[in-house]
Amino acid sequence: MNTATKADLFRHSGKISLGKFLFCLIRIPGFRFIYLWRKAKRYSKYNPLGLLFKLLYIHFAYKYGFQIPLHVQIGSGFYIGHFGTIIINRSAVIGNNCNIAPNVTIGQTNKGDKKGVPHIGNEVWIGTGTVIVGKIKIGNNVLIAPNSFINSDVPSNSLVMGNPATVIPKSKDITDDYVINIFGEGKLK
After folding, report:
1. The CATH homologous superfamily of the domain defined by 3-169
2. For the chain, what are the domain ranges?
3. Do residues 133 and 118 touch, judged by C-beta distance below 8 A?
4. Nearest Cα to 92, choosing from 78, 106, 105?
5. DSSP H/E element including 18
6. How many angstroms from the chain centroid is the CA of residue 49?
7. Residue of 20, 132, 2 lying closest to 75 (CA atoms)
């Protein structure tokens, strides 16, 4: 099991063991999908194992309503809390230990000075129904409240809410009770 998969497993279960891995793979849709996504991304399409993982990835993408292309850059410890429509642009970048809820769109803007896609930092919690668009940067340790619309930069250690988004500077520990079970860097949180 590679480090990213261990981090994903730890985020979903709080433990790393073969039993927890099998339990999460069978019973937790978010973990199952991200595991298959990482495997499909890792193996070449010309490799028979890669073809199998890609077919499973496509099957579960349709089943769960996830549009997360293999080109997206997603860090380790990615947590999908519930299945339901999640759309992420193929050029988006998502950091380590991020949570994403259903009905989230991370998309592209095609006009203006924000033309492009978002870059999301580490330890970001994205609430249900959130829309994040444009060439913007969301810092580390950011909590995005449900149903927010974000089209401008968000500094680290912030709470974001509303449509249009309002940024409320907070403290370093804003996501402590939301982004849990962090694996790696010599610490377990």
Report:
1. Hexapeptide repeat proteins (2.160.10.10)
2. 3-169
3. yes
4. 106
5. helix 18-27
6. 25
7. 2
Q: Could you tell me the CA-to-CA distances from 1 to 5, 68, 120, 152 in Å, in that order?
A: 6, 22, 25, 37
| Whether the bond into 164 is cis, omega within 30 of 0 | yes
Tell me the per-residue pLDDT of 1-30, one tens digit each, with 9 for 90 and over. 789 999 999 999 999 999 999 999 999 999
pLDDT tens per residue across span 94-118: 999 999 999 999 999 999 899 999 9
Q: Report how far residue 155's alpha carbon sits from residue 159's, in angstroms, rounded to the nearest whole number.
A: 9
**Entry field: residues in the chain:** 189
> Which tens digit of pLDDT belongs to each residue from 43-68?
877 788 889 999 999 999 999 999 99
Distance between start and end Cα atoms, the chain: 21
Sequence letter at residue 69: P
> Edge-to-edge strands of the sheet including 158-161?
79-80, 99-100, 124-126, 142-144, 158-161, 166-169
Taking the C-alpha atoms of residue 56 and residue 61, their distance in angstroms, rounded to an integer, is 8
Under a CB-based contact definition with an 8 Å cutoff, are residues 89 and 108 in contact?
A: yes
